[in-house]
Write a structure and sequence with these properties.
Strand content: 25-35%
Number of helices: 6
Number of strands: 7
Radius of gyration: 30 Å
CATH class of the largest domain: Mainly Beta
Number of domains: 2
Helix content: 40-55%
CATH superfamily of the largest domain: Pleckstrin-homology domain (PH domain)/Phosphotyrosine-binding domain (PTB)
CATH topology of the largest domain: PH-domain like
Strand order of the largest sheet: 1-2-3-4
Length: 184
């Protein structure tokens, strides 16, 4: 038997983490803290918005460990030997390169009709687009909105001038004749 829920995201931490699952009618967050699991269900019909933005603290993840490793590199270079200093220096550069390649960490808020919940949906902002696209497709399917009907009707149909009826033609001709006689 196959589960109706499919995993769309996972955000880990030292004490546990959150796994996100999507089904046809809801979004489920399974937040694990040590040995306890807390489930939170968000029905797709009640979702108002999901906001994901870069965290301000992601620069601290780059600067603090890199500066500590660079200080250790300088200390080892000075007092022990240059090989150990070089190893710690290369670790500092590797740390900076890895964090910059992964991109900024993300914060997120999920708003429903009844509540606003601050739960991490994704760890990094570069992954947010894929996860939000999956959720958006599920919300559109639940609410019965297709992608084609969401587009403006003007773009789907070329604009054509309406064909006037005989009564509209005679009314337009009488208005034109009245404006010519009045000198307008």
């Amino acid at each position: 038997m196959r589960s109706a829920f499919r995993k769309i995201s996972r955000v880990g931490s030292l004490t546990g983490g959150t796994k996100w699952y999507l089904s046809e009618d809801c979004l489920l967050a399974a937040k694990r803290i040590l040995y306890a699991v807390e489930y939170r269900r968000f029905y797709l019909r009640d979702l108002e918005c999901i906001m994901v933005w870069p965290s301000r603290m992601w620069l601290a993840r780059v600067i603090i460990p890199a500066s500590l490793l660079a200080a250790l590199a300088a200390a080892f270079w000075q007092w022990v030997d240059s090989t150990t200093g070089m190893i710690f220096g290369s670790l500092a550069l590797l740390w900076v390169a890895l964090e910059l390649a992964l991109g900024p960490t993300a914060r997120s808020v999920i708003r429903t009709t009844g509540a606003s919940v601050d739960l991490a949906l994704v760890k990094r902002t570069r992954r947010a687009r894929k996860v939000l696209a999956k959720i958006d497709a599920a919300v559109r399917a639940t609410r019965g909105v297709s992608e084609r009907s969401a587009a403006p009707a003007i773009a789907a149909q070329p604009a054509e001038p309406p064909v006037p009826t005989r009564s509209e033609e005679s009314a337009t001709a009488s208005i034109a004749a009245a404006t010519q006689t009045n000198g307008l």
